[in-house]
UniProtKB/TrEMBL annotation:
Domain (GFO/IDH/MocA-like oxidoreductase): residue spans on this chain: 131-251
Top-level taxon in the UniProt lineage: Bacteria
SUPFAM superfamilies: Glyceraldehyde-3-phosphate dehydrogenase-like, C-terminal domain, NAD(P)-binding Rossmann-fold domains
Span of domain Gfo/Idh/MocA-like oxidoreductase N-terminal: 2-120
Protein name: Gfo/Idh/MocA family oxidoreductase
Stored Gene3D superfamilies: Dihydrodipicolinate Reductase, domain 2, NAD(P)-binding Rossmann-like Domain
Pfam families in alphabetical order: GFO_IDH_MocA, GFO_IDH_MocA_C3
Coiled coil feature spans: none
Organism: Mesorhizobium vachelliae
Length: 343
C-alpha cells in the first residue's frame, strides 16, 4: 500500500482524488490546506474516514509518514511544498507548472536529486490518446520527418479567482500543455522563441490572456502557437487544434476525435502533387493514457520499480523553459534563445 498526503484542496484536487480512488494500492493518508474547513469538506466528499487533516504540511507529514505527496497548490507555493516533501524523504507528484520561476524550478529539481526521490509533473496532455497516436505515427516515418507544427488554442473560460489576476496568464497557466505536447509529438528540443502577448479590449483578465509564439524546436522543426483565454466563438478543444506538416504529407487533429492524415502520392495535378489519405494507426497496448489516472499510475510504477516517470521534472523543465523564454520574449520584444542551462 502506498500512502499519500495531498496538499491543496481547491477545485483541481477533485481531478486527483477522482483518479486516486480508482487505483488499488493507493491510500490518501492526509489532506492539507490553508483552509481546514475546505480540507474537511474534501474528506467528507470522498468518504476519507480516518484521514489526517491539517493546515501545516510539515505537521501532517510528521504525523502520517507517507510515501509520497500530491502537490495541488498554487504555483507560487510549489517550491516550499517540494522542499518540505523531500526533507521528509517523500516522493513528489506535482500539478503543472513545475514552478513559477526558473530559479524555483531548478531548486526543486536539485532538491529531488539530492534527496534521491521521484519527482514528476502532471503534464497530462501527453496522456491523451490522439497525442500518443500522432507521436507513434510520426515515428513510423509514414509521411517523413515533421518540419512544421501549428497549434491553435481559443477558449474563453470565466474562472474567477487567481487566474484572472495573474500576469502572463495564458503562457504561465495553460500554454505549457500545448508546448509539451508539441515537443513530445515531434521529439523536439527547444532552441529559441519569439513571442508577443496582448490584452484584447474584451478581456476580463489582468494581463497576458492572448499570445502568439514561434519556436525553433531543433532539427529544422518550427512550432507556431496562437492562443487566447478570451476568444468567444468557435471554441477549440482544450487540447487545441493541430496541423503537423512533414516531408511527404500532413496530419491534422481537431483536438477531439477528428484525426486524419494525407501522404504524397505519385503524379501531379496542375501545380500540386497528388495526395491520398493514410490511416493513423490506433493506440498501441503499451500507450499510457487516461490523464491524471495514467500519470499517477506511472508515478507509482516509478517508485515501485526504480524506473523514471515519463513526466519527470528533469525532463518537464524543458517545456517550462519554453514558457519562461516566451514570457521573456514578450516582455523584451526580441527573439530569445533557450539555453541548455535553462533546461
Amino acid at each position: 500500500m502506498m500512502n499519500v498526503v495531498l496538499v491543496g484542496c481547491g477545485a483541481m484536487s477533485k481531478h486527483w482524488l477522482d483518479a486516486a480512488r480508482r487505483i488499488d494500492g493507493l491510500a490518501i493518508a492526509g489532506l492539507v490546506d490553508l483552509d481546514a474547513d475546505r480540507a474537511q469538506a474534501r474528506a467528507r466528499e470522498y468518504e476519507l474516514s480516518g484521514v489526517v487533516i491539517g493546515t501545516s504540511l510539515d505537521a501532517v507529514l510528521d504525523q502520517t509518514k507517507p510515501d509520497a505527496v500530491f502537490d495541488v497548490v498554487v504555483p507560487a507555493a510549489r517550491r516550499e511544498v517540494a522542499l518540505s516533501t523531500f526533507a521528509h524523504h517523500c516522493h513528489l507528484l506535482t500539478e503543472k507548472p513545475l514552478a513559477d520561476t526558473p530559479e524555483n524550478a531548478h531548486a526543486i529539481i536539485e532538491a529531488a536529486r539530492r534527496a534521491d526521490r521521484v519527482h514528476a509533473v502532471v503534464q497530462n496532455r501527453r496522456y491523451v490518446a490522439n497525442v500518443r497516436r500522432i507521436r507513434r505515427f510520426l515515428d513510423s516515418g509514414a509521411i517523413g520527418a515533421p518540419t512544421s507544427i501549428h497549434a491553435d488554442f481559443f477558449v474563453a473560460p470565466h474562472f474567477g479567482g487567481f487566474r484572472e489576476e495573474m500576469r502572463h496568464v495564458l503562457l504561465l497557466d495553460m500554454a505549457i500543455h500545448t508546448f509539451d505536447a508539441a515537443r513530445y509529438m515531434v521529439a523536439g528540443e527547444p532552441v529559441s522563441v519569439y513571442c508577443q502577448e496582448w490584452e484584447p479590449a474584451s478581456s476580463w483578465y489582468r494581463q497576458g490572456s492572448s499570445a502568439s509564439a514561434v519556436f525553433d524546436l531543433g532539427g529544422s522543426k518550427v512550432f507556431t502557437y496562437a492562443g487566447s483565454w478570451c476568444a468567444d466563438g468557435f471554441r477549440t478543444s482544450w487540447e487545441g487544434s493541430w496541423r503537423i506538416v512533414a516531408e511527404r504529407g500532413s496530419v491534422m487533429w481537431d483536438g477531439h476525435d477528428g484525426l486524419k492524415a494525407e501522404v504524397v502520392a505519385p503524379g501531379r495535378e496542375g501545380l500540386f502533387d497528388k495526395t491520398t489519405p493514410i490511416e493513423v494507426p490506433p493506440l498501441d497496448p503499451t500507450d499510457r493514457v487516461d490523464g491524471h489516472l495514467g500519470i499517477i499510475q506511472d508515478f507509482m510504477h516509478a517508485i515501485e520499480t526504480g524506473a523514471e516517470p515519463e513526466t519527470r521534472g528533469a525532463d518537464n523543465i524543458k517545456s517550462l523553459a519554453m514558457v519562461f523564454a516566451a514570457i521573456e520574449s514578450a516582455e523584451s520584444g526580441r527573439r530569445v534563445a533557450i539555453a541548455k542551462e535553462a533546461m
